[in-house]
């Protein structure tokens, strides 16, 4: 038995919405410490899959195992407590609040069950909050180059920076496993390069395992250690980037658009 070789194992996962099979008997194994990319056309089931991991959706069938523990039926906050954190395809920040408050609240939302315990948290000792702020300043804001804008309202920031705040929020609970759902969507080339650099640093310096959903094939081929391809709710291929570049299904799906740089 290869104990602990895989951080995350998904067995036979199925999820349907009425007649739509969003996930159709999907198996995935994510090795520890790698960038694992999930690609495929819109509607392939990528977000549904990560929603099953973070428990926003409940699969009808299958098992999800994280670090050897079955997490299929855990509530969302317990999954977060296991060390799994994520960003969202559509930015879900509190736009009127500052960068720092969003990140602090994100840490809290990831780790507790709801808004009420959020209020209790804010009532906690000042010292604890100062310690948290010091950690966020040192590790998260500094790392992502957000220190100088930490007191600005999120709404005043360009889109690329907002995506970075979302990433900071996902990093703030000190996760071991990070899920990024299209972190570069809507970004310009320079912002994408920045995000790519940060993802690689999160893997190489912080040692996190990363499950990445991304459409930009140049990015995917550059930073992934392993790629799985989904279409119509099924995993249709997987392998390293070199193998996936030559895979007929991948070429058929992506030929003509995302493979071209730019
Ligand atoms: N909450 C939902 N209710 C109904 N259908 C959904 C819901 N979420 C996803 N789906 C359907 O499941 C399929 C997969 O969607 P999704 O996981 O968002 O794909 P992707 O992220 O690969 O674009 C699509 O047909 C989508 O319409
Ligand atoms: Mg999606």
Description:
There is one protein chain. The chain is α/β, with parallel strands linked by helices. It folds into two domains: 1-83 and 176-262, Rossmann fold; 93-174, P-loop containing nucleotide triphosphate hydrolases (Rossmann fold, 3-Layer(aba) Sandwich), CATH 3.40.50. It is built from ten helices and ten strands. The strands form two sheets. A six-stranded mixed β-sheet has the order 6-7-8-3-9-10, sandwiched between helices. Strands 2-1-4-5 form a four-stranded antiparallel β-sheet, with helices on one face. Mean pLDDT is 88; it is low at 112-117 and 258-262. The structure holds adenosine-5'-diphosphate (ADP) and magnesium ion (MG). Magnesium ion binds next to helix 1. Adenosine-5'-diphosphate binds next to strand 2 and helix 1.
List keywords for this structure.
10 strands; Rossmann fold; binds adenosine-5'-diphosphate; alpha/beta; 2 domains; 262 residues; six-stranded mixed beta sheet; disordered C terminus; globular; four-stranded antiparallel beta sheet; binds magnesium ion
